[in-house]
Design goal:
heterodimer, A: 255 residues, mainly alpha, MetI-like fold, B: 259 residues, 12 helices, 0% strand, globular
Chain lengths: 255, 259
Amino acid sequence: MKSLVQKLYLSLVYCILYFPILVLIIYSVNDARFSLQWHGFSGQWYRELFQDRGLWSAFFHSIGLGLAASFIATSVGLLACVHLFLHRHPYRRSLFAMLLLLVIIPDLVLGVALLIFFNVTAVPLGFFSLLIAHITFCIPFVLLTINTRIHTLDANIYYSALDLGASRHTALAKILLPLLWPAVLSAFLLCFTLSFDDVIISYFVAGPDFNILPLTIYSLVRAGVTPELNALCTITFLISMMLVIVSHRLSRKTS
Amino acid sequence: MLFCFVPLAMVVVASFLSKDSNHLVSLPFTLTNYAELFSPLFAKVFIRSLLIALFTTLCCLLIAYPFSYLLTKSKHQSVLLILIIIPFWTSSLVRTYSLIAILKFNGILNTLLLKIHVIDHPLSLLYSNFAVLTGLVYNLLPFMILPIFTNMERFDFRLIEAAKDLGASRLAIFFRVFLPNTAGGIISGCLLVLLPAMTLFYIPNVLGGARSILLGNMIQNQFLVLENWPQGAATSLLLTVLLFILLFFFRRYNREIVH
């Protein structure tokens, strides 16, 4: 009896978490515009979605921005991690405290700060402002992901490679990088999902001529519920879910 | 390799700039922006956001605490854990949007309640404080579950056996053994929920009505609609200071528990 109640409670919470998403997916393939009733399966909304030019361009902008931001954030974060790992930096602890602060600080405040920063430095709002903003909020996550992995390594393997005559480049590329590879990939995927889904910070630093998907969705959401939007949200949800699962698998392999 | 600190420094610089933005937007340095923060209108919004944020945190805690306990006891822990992490990293905007279909006037919840005769006519749930609260709890629940769960996982359940052997009642076991030992997780969970609950501006924008403007919406409005940057900067600075005070107290409390 007791275990039954417990199981019920567990499943209830999962129902609460997943029910709205399930509803979304079901309505996205429902063959009716306004009705709540089930009218049979239809791919109509997806077809209409695929014909929307503006959405496609926003989608590709988002993918491009996500890839660029995650690539730069991951490489910078990787180098910083390796640097901090190999050289006992006196300010290591305070650096990591600062990073945690960046994770904790509300997105809204970061967005506002970046907006003011771009205004002062006269960076036009558009692709570059978005790129810099996304790199900024991704880097702490990269450092935290790679850092947990790098601490399972022994720094001496790097130094023994140097003793055996490898250049620093070779030692980095042939010794450290292969060992860190899963963590790096998982950090990259994490950055991509973060960047792909971010609304708050992008909302502040996006310009009028560079539209990205989350902001497009946001403006559509505020206009009201449509089946096309259901379809679009289903697709973005599935994309991020896939990335999460892959990234989770990778990070589990490392630990 | 020090390149990595450039963006970091940039944020720090920018956050300092926001303080000085009174200069940058209009030269005469004034305190009016800060004075305006004490106006009754602002105080109302502020108190409302704080109340909603606190209530969200409480709801999350009440749901998450027993849930995490069951999760630590469960046999299928890893699968269940991934299922919690998935919503954690997927677009919260999309998930907020999906709530509309459930809460709206002729939505699923109303239809269901009508069918089982709990209510006679549909309730207007959407565009209210209730909808905002639901949205926030729904979005932030994983942020509460994960820290509490990681904390509980480390708890040595033999302590409970020991307390039982020593004759402690069930209530005493809970309040004097289990709760103090898992308080660290509760505190970090509360922080992770409370902080975003004050600032997630798009949830009230999507689910809330005209009367559920929160602090986050206010800052966003000041920046992008009213174009009153100094005022917005002052508000966000106040928010940051408030959050740091909260953080400080929580950490202090945390340390006291540990010692």
